Amino acid sequence: MNGLLRSWLVALGGMTLLSADGIRQAFRRPFERALWLEQLEHLGVQSITITNVTLLFTGMVLAVQTAYSLASYGGQSFVGNLLGLAIVRELGPVLTALMVAGRVGAGITAELGSMAVTEQVDALRVLAASPTKKLVVPRVGALVIALPLLTVLADAIGLFGGLVMAVTQIGQPRAYFVSHILLALTVYDVVSGIGKTFFFAFFIGIIACYNGLNATGGADGVGKATTNTVVVASIAVIISDFFLTQMFLMF
Questions:
Q1: Is the peptide bond before 30 cis (omega within 30 degrees of 0)?
Q2: Is 17 contained in some domain?
Q3: Is 231 inside any structural domain?
Q4: How many domains does the chain have?
């Protein structure tokens, strides 16, 4: 138990130091625009399909289940209200982050882990180049930019899925459903939902980069680091969501 706690504390300390170094390197020239654009395409654009499909069917299922549950109380008219709040404030940001943690987090760790075990990271240091500047900053920065945008798109797709089920299964007019969504949502709801994703993206990126850069032991070590990233990043998203929700409710 003490050994496990110690390893967790060592990892937490390492991620904190990597975060501090990454923030410092992010404001130093050159800004590596080409690397940023490459990572935006790889981490953001290529994640659109998985996040949109996830939220599309989540919205559809949630609309049907909500309508079924509220039917006994005569509350089917509030399906749009509940769906809008649930997706925009919680399900959209969290599910999008979890999908990105699984796809992108694992990919970053595997990529950097392979570079670490083949001594490519050490070669960067020998060339007086900062691995944090070259490898960490573009990936974490691209995630911080891409995840909020992915969440906005996924929210819209999720609400569209709910709209489809409301019109075809529940029999609500399209304008009626949309008006209830707009009635329920406020600017605060949208800001709080999207605001969480900046933190989620940073946590996912730092965890993935740290595990990748510290992978050892060849292919087996890279595999373990990749698995660890998916597990830890997913837990970090869920736990931080609770505290971020509490924080946003204070304002």
A1: yes
A2: no
A3: yes
A4: 1
